[in-house]
Hints:
Layout: H1 4-19, E1 24-30, H2 34-38, E2 43-51, E3 54-62
Antiparallel strand pairs: 1-3, 2-3
Amino acid sequence: GQGIGHKLMAQALDHAGEKWPGRTIYLSAQAHLQGYYGRYGFEPVGAVYLEDGIPHIGMRRDLG
């Protein structure tokens, strides 16, 4: 509730963009968090699948 997750995500993406400019990064998100990751430019790819009984979806983002 203090915004730490948002700060960490922003810093991680900034660092990744500096280290690997122009690359695409991927993550496996719990399906209900698509909106959260969407705020950071991630887009869903593929179909929803179960991982440990929890719906997940692949997501990707191009780094600047």
